[in-house]
Amino acid sequence: MLDLIDIGANLTHESFAADRQAILARAAEAGVKRIIVTGTTLSASRDALQLAHDHPGRLYATAGVHPHHAAEIDTETLTGIRELAADPSIVAIGECGLDYFRDYSPRQAQRDAFEKQLSLAAGTDKPVFLHQREAHADFVALLKNVLGQIAGGVAHCFTGERLEMKTYLDMGLYIGITGWICDERRGELLRDAARYLPLDRLLLETDAPYLLPRDLRDKPSGRRNEPSVLPHVLKAVARCMRQPAKIVAEAATQNSELLFRLSESNI
Question: Does pLDDT of 192 surpass 60?
């Protein structure tokens, strides 16, 4: 029986409101025993923490502001995130970073918000849950300023190529891999990079309800991704890494426990 941890699922998303308990039941049946619920705004982070409180030892949460919402960040928001971070069920600061692909917030606002959350993370002794899309150079430059001050982090939903991955590994980051690796159109660079990913830096995630694997045979109604799909991602990663799925699963779980300090103290 698998013992997997989905390190990134947006369970506060409205698409989960009607059947969240069934989703958790399906995840457990599939071997996904623990899930980290992603916080993307102050409000969503509060909701994520409430879910973690409702399911102690099973759900955990992150607290942060996604770059899409960077223009909304202010002193009150940062204070709220800092207060949430004091709760043991909050295991990381984020989702934070830069997104120059969508540019839903001005780039300078994104950089300012990212810097502020990195500084906040340094003061909480919690790792960072990182987002980067088409902003590699600025992302690395800002992150390097605080590397010695933060408690590690993960490049969430990594979709890049081998050299980009090496940069993150050299910075001490973990690499989070989603169903993007199953995409025959867009996942080729990621599949190549995964061949060189050390087992001790791998984390697994679904990013549900997004990124439903394109090669999934029995696609759910509405094409909504959910944590029970994680074993499918595991198998794809194992093939790329040329390792038995059991070995990859054990490594990913151990890495997740180490980075996010998942233990009895989080319950």
Answer: yes
